[in-house]
Specification:
The protein is an all-alpha fold and 325 residues long. Helix content is 74%, strand content 3%. It contains twelve helices and three strands. Helix 8 runs antiparallel to helix 9. The longest helix is centred in the middle third of the chain and has 34 residues. It is globular, with a radius of gyration of 23 Å.
Length: 325
């Protein structure tokens, strides 16, 4: 392509979820609420797991990493989106855009790998309870977490490098609320064949591989639960598995629908809505589905709140009680 036919952009304009002015404030309040719930819930989980000795097990180590990934995942996109709602320019620099793309892909992949590891953890705990501590020892747990982080960064590095090779024309408006892969590729004036090919090959392997582990693990778990004589135990297990699989279905269903299709058939309007499901809704649900419904976590939370309450009473000046008496 002749250099006179294109202009290298220094920034992009993120048009957001909606261009209707009357929808901006309700959207801002909705996303601010979900972001606050996400940050608060996941932060509490991380604090509880770090501070409670009873929660120093592989299951909760994986949960704490998932909580951290959820916080980083939404923090990559939502704060910038909230800022742009009240911004007249809605601009993001070229470097900032690629940086956002990198971390978005990285934490999405990390959540993908962690969900698979957590499903495997539950499979060992339910189907082989007497071998749990032997199989999932501290060393293997650390290795699994490290592999999740390394693979996530390598996956993000590959797709961000391919995105950095693209040429972007003078039309730098992105009809999305963050620098997602397909919307960026849509405004590029160079060939995106290699980018699409890697999404449909390497991306499919990453997503489908983790999903296969999750489905195989839960199939074994359900089979083991069906053999249990306790009806109450069956109901509790199916309730937990159903909640987990609901989150998995939302995350992988929307992710697959957005990316694993030809670029020509990608709908920007539909893609925005579906992207919200796995970038904002799923990380907001994860604390409630995976952790806050767990009796050990709830017990640790009550103890933590009691310590805070007792500490606050101890710091209250004695003369204040005399005043009320």
């Amino acid at each position: 392509m002749d250099n006179t036919t294109w202009t290298s952009v220094s920034h992009f304009v993120l048009l957001g979820i909606s261009t209707h002015q009357e929808e901006q404030i309700p959207l801002c309040l909705l996303f601010l609420l979900m972001y606050t719930i996400n940050i608060s819930g996941n932060s509490v989980i991380i604090i509880l797991i770090i501070s409670a000795p009873r929660l120093q097990t592989p299951m909760y180590v994986f949960l704490s990493n998932l909580a951290l990934a959820d916080i980083c995942f939404t923090s990559t996109t939502v704060p910038k989106m909230l800022q742009n709602i009240f911004s007249s320019t809605k601009a993001i620099s070229y470097v900032g855009c690629l940086t956002q793309t990198y971390f978005f892909i990285c934490f999405a992949a990390m959540e993908n790998f962690l969900l698979a590891v957590m499903a495997y953890d539950r499979y060992i705990a339910i189907c082989h309870p007497f071998l749990y501590s032997m199989i999932l020892n501290r060393k293997l747990c650390s290795h699994l977490v490290a592999v999740c982080h390394i693979l996530s960064h390598l996956h993000a590095l590959l797709h961000t490098f391919l995105m950095g090779r693209l040429i972007f024309c003078a039309d730098n408006r992105i009809p999305h609320f963050f620098c997602d892969l397909y919307p960026l590729m849509k405004v590029s004036c160079s060939s995106t064949h290699l980018n699409t090919l890697m999404i449909h090959t390497e991306g499919v392997i990453v997503i489908s591989g983790a999903l296969a582990v999750i489905m195989a693990s839960y199939a074994c778990i359900i089979s083991a639960v069906l053999q249990s004589p306790s009806a109450k135990g069956k109901w509790r297990a199916f309730s937990t598995c159903g909640s987990h699989l609901t989150v998995v279905a939302i995350f992988y269903g929307t992710l697959t629908w957005v990316y694993f299709r030809p670029l020509t058939s990608y709908s920007v309007a539909g893609g925005r809505i579906l992207t919200v499901m796995y970038t904002v809704v799923t990380p907001t649900l994860n604390p409630f589905i995976y952790s806050l419904r767990n009796k050990d976590v709830k017990g640790a939370f009550r103890k933590w709140m009691n310590r805070i309450w007792t500490s606050s009473l101890d710091k209250t000046p004695k003369h204040s009680f005399k005043f009320y008496l």
